[in-house]
Amino acid sequence: MQLRPAELIINEDGSIYHLNLLPEDIATTIITVGDPDRVNQVSSYFDSIEVKKGKREFLTHTGHLNGKRISVISTGIGTDNIDIVINELDALVNIDFKTRALKKKHTSLKIVRIGTSGAIQNDIPVDSFLMSEYVMGFDGLLHFYEHDKINFPKIEDAFIAHTSWDSFKARPYVLSYSKSLGNIFKNNRIRLGFTATNTGFYGPQQRQLRLKPSQMELMEKLSTFSYEGNSLTNLEMETSGIYALSQLLGHEAVSMNCILANRANGEFSKDPVKSVDKLINFCLERLT
């Protein structure tokens, strides 16, 4: 099957449309960060940098650390951007840009999100680290793709009943991380969590400025939900999309969260840059 120009959009220089990258520009181990400024924060630890490219909010650095080739790319905020990034990263390694055909040999990427998040349980300290063993997505991205038995419908049904989930919203979906990739990061410093991914920062996460969220009791219902001993631990905006597309496309993915806020007790990190930097250091040590 040859992909049409409107499906696989390639720039004049041969790079993929949004990311502005050539197939040889990326490593098979990729760190994703939301903030473009965090790309420099990560790559400053590399021994060498061979690629620096950017377009829109998508900034990419590829280099080497301790003999291992690594790429770090900014995604911007939200699962809509994740849809672009993961699909285009997959295209770079699994589609022949000259023939516009799928490659016969599949390449699996290792994708590690290093991001920030807010805890919704009292016992999760600000500035601590959490790895998303499970994620529940409220974004609906998974429903736009054909999929079969990669999610957990019993947990979803229990959550819908517990929260009296509005039927006009997207059905929540639950996914798990890559266990083999996650094992690299298991450590006494790392809490395993059940992350919730929402579609926005204010109303969807029950923050009220001038607009009142439609379901003011949702935060309490999120924090009190539990299924077979698994309670929701934190809120952020990308993990469900990363896990969904990675599993559908045959890649390994794990989300590492620096807890900057605790929504249950109202605390926020006094030095968020330092806390995120500690997580970056930890992840790079484990990857290399």
UniProtKB/TrEMBL annotation:
It comes from the Bacteria. GO terms for biological process: uridine catabolic process. SUPFAM superfamilies: Purine and uridine phosphorylases (SSF53167). Residues 29-269 form the Nucleoside phosphorylase domain. CDD domains: UP_TbUP-like (cd00436). PANTHER family: PHOSPHORYLASE, PUTATIVE-RELATED (PTHR43691:SF15), URIDINE PHOSPHORYLASE (PTHR43691). This is Phosphorylase. It comes from Maribacter hydrothermalis.
